[in-house]
Amino acid sequence: MKISISYTNYQIKIRWLKPTPMKINNPNLLYLQLPNQIIMQLAAQIIIGLVAAIHIYILWLEMFAWTTKAPKVFKSIPEELFPKTKTLAANQGLYNGFLAAGLIWSLCITDHHWRLYVAIFFLTCVIIAGIYGATTASKKILYVQSIPALVAMILLHLR
Questions:
Q1: Does 89 fall in a domain?
Q2: Strand 11-17 to strand 2-8: parallel, antiparallel, or no bridges (unpaired)?
Q3: Could you write out the DSSP letters of every residue in 88-124?
Q4: Total count of domains within the chain
Q5: CB contact at 8 A, 153 and 123
């Protein structure tokens, strides 16, 4: 059922329109057909949100839970090093927070071009940081940080 609203002399008149049957080219489709660009942009934004959430988690872990929860996550680091490296970890966590803030900012920008440029910049930062972390610390960082950011970057460029 559709509603048509017209404004005349500051009075609202509502007319009920008769519903028209939808014609779908492929009867097997049960979802709303959207242009590919919109689907890719939506998928990119979801992945960017996921990458931002990962970095917020890393921020929390390195800044606030370094001596309590982090030893269970980073099993290759000896437990006696966690209290000694608390300040260094908090510094790393802060940088991860900046990456998350930039990615969240890119999701809030309304201008398409600015949103794209800001997202590309921060995703590139995440990819580079993940590659560096994978070569210097653990290969797992590549899969947790760089690959999702790379997927988001590819989706941003698909049309």
A1: yes
A2: antiparallel
A3: HHHHHHHHHHHHHHHHHHHHH--SHHHHHHHHHHHHH
A4: 1
A5: yes
Task: Check: CB of residue 69 under 8 Å from CB of residue 82.
Answer: no
Is residue 60 assigned to a domain? Answer: yes
Say how far apart CA 84 and CA 59 lie, in whole Å.
18
- Domain residues for the domain of 93 are 35-157
**Whole-number Å distance between alpha carbons of 61 and 43:** 27
Q: pLDDT by residue (tens digit) across 127-157?
A: 999 999 999 988 999 999 999 999 999 999 8
Q: 129 in a domain, yes or no? A: yes
Residue with tokens 């009075």: 11
Which amino acid is located at 46 in the chain? I
The H-or-E segment that residue 2 falls in is strand 2-8
Query: Which pTM was predicted?
Result: 0.75
For the record, the structure tokens of 152 come out as 């988001």
Q: Helix axis angle, 36-64 relative to 147-157, nearest 10°?
A: 150
User: Is pLDDT larger for residue 10 or for residue 67?
Assistant: 67
